[in-house]
Design brief:
globular, five-stranded mixed sheet
Length: 295
């Protein structure tokens, strides 16, 4: 039985029922198949292995797109979690969430051993090993009972909480790569080997689900790009931004200071007060010229 597939440019093609996104990409061109990492079916993101069984609109997602970049970063977050479990022990690490954010990703974890910035190098090295293993990233649909049993056996209380909070009619999917399993909507890269350039940036604390009544977790931030040149360019921009950070410049130039008497509030020093006064006077003169009155 054949189905009708409509591409983004409006072209209509006929394929056998069960044809995958990857096979559609290959039928268009060998170069597209090489660049493809996922797809969209009627606007919904899916894996390359997704089989098409009905007439639909599809889009091939490549690395050079915003969707492709998000998928790379999301898959890298899973590799981060897998590396941490390998280093610190599967049972010692409880997983929270690992979403994509602007310019990167993070993963929240709960474990007794504190992670410092110095530990990020060894975690990156283990991530590189996971990437070199080129583990297939496999999507699996499970029912609620299966999901609860699976993560109960793995002693993952945070994942169990997430599962219990899912709407009853939600499709629950898990992703497996080697020994690692995670609860996730996806989609992901076909394999860990498709990750080419990443960097862990820093460690911070974060309350579980953003609620100060919940436990404080450790949050590891990172970023990833399709090419090392793009990663290096991004890291260079971050370093340049650090040089221009007002907190750094304020201290170096003697403009303001911070004190325990009022944490987070700047205390202006003479030079800083001079600049502030000049700016206030400049603003007041502009307001006077425009007939504004202060109240």
């Amino acid at each position: 039985m054949e189905i009708n597939v409509i591409l983004p440019d409006g072209t209509s093609k006929r394929y056998s029922q069960g044809t995958t996104i990857e096979q559609v990409a290959e039928s268009i061109s060998s170069s597209l198949k090489k660049q493809a990492i996922a797809g969209k079916v009627n606007g919904t993101p899916v894996e390359l292995s997704c089989a098409l069984n009905h007439d639909c609109h599809i889009e091939i997602v490549t690395l050079d797109s915003k969707d492709g970049l998000d998928i790379v970063r999301h898959s890298t977050a899973h590799v981060l979690a897998q590396a941490i479990k390998r280093i610190y022990g599967d049972k010692a690490v409880k997983l929270g969430i690992g979403p994509v954010i602007e310019d990167g990703f993070y993963y929240d974890i709960d474990m007794d051993t504190p992670i410092s910035s110095d530990d990020l190098v060894s975690i990156e090295q283990e991530m590189e090993r996971v990437i070199q293993e080129n583990l297939p990233i496999v999507r699996r649909v499970v029912n609620r009972a299966e999901a609860l049993e699976m993560f109960a056996e793995r002693d993952e209380p945070l994942k169990l909480e997430l599962i219990r909070d899912l709407p009853q009619d939600d499709v629950i999917t898990i992703y497996e790569q080697g020994e690692f399993v995670d609860l996730c909507r996806g989609p992901h890269l076909p394999s860990t080997g498709r990750i080419k350039a990443f960097k862990l940036l820093n460690v911070a604390g974060a309350y579980w689900r953003g609620d100060s009544n919940n436990k404080m977790l450790q949050r590891i931030y990172g970023t990833a790009f399709p090419k090392k040149a793009l990663l290096e360019e991004h890291l260079h921009r971050l370093e340049e931004a650090k040089k221009r950070d007002h907190r750094k410049l304020g201290k170096e130039l003697g403009l303001f200071m911070f004190s325990e008497e009022a944490p987070g509030m700047p205390f202006y020093l003479p030079k800083g007060m001079t600049i502030r006064t000049e700016l206030e006077q400049f603003a007041r003169e502009l307001q006077r010229q425009r007939d504004y009155d202060e109240v």
